[in-house]
Amino acid sequence: MQINLNKHVWEGWTVGDFIDDLEPLFDIVRSNASEFGCSAFETKEDVKKWCMDNQPGYKKYIPEVVNYFASKIK
């Protein structure tokens, strides 16, 4: 899957900026869930909701960001 990390999304923020901002928290959420024997993200829809809730300032669906993180849960 090819993702254009330089695609402008909002007020100077690119797809790559959102991914860079969310990735540390995403990794923490995933690792803490696994410590308790569960998965923080069961479906792509779970990832979509989490991304939209945790993106800084912009709370709309960004398909490239969701696809990036959804590919990490498979």
Features:
single chain, 74 residues, mainly alpha, 3 helices, 7% strand, elongated
Summarize the structure.
The protein is built from three helices and two strands, in the order ββααα. It is mainly α.
Layout of strands and helices, then pairs:
Blueprint: E1 8-10, E2 13-14, H1 15-35, H2 44-54, H3 63-72
Antiparallel strand pairs: 1-2
Helix pairs in contact: 1-3, 2-3
Report on the structure:
It is a single chain. The longest helix has 21 residues, at 15-35. It is built from 3 helices and 2 strands; from the N terminus they run ββααα. Strands 1-2 form a two-stranded antiparallel ribbon. Helix content is 57%, strand content 7%. With 74 residues, the chain is mainly alpha-helical. The chain has one domain (8-72).
Approximate shape: elongated
Distance between the termini: 14 Å
User: Radius of gyration in whole Å, from Cα?
Assistant: 12 Å
**Average pLDDT score:** 91
The tally of helices reads 3
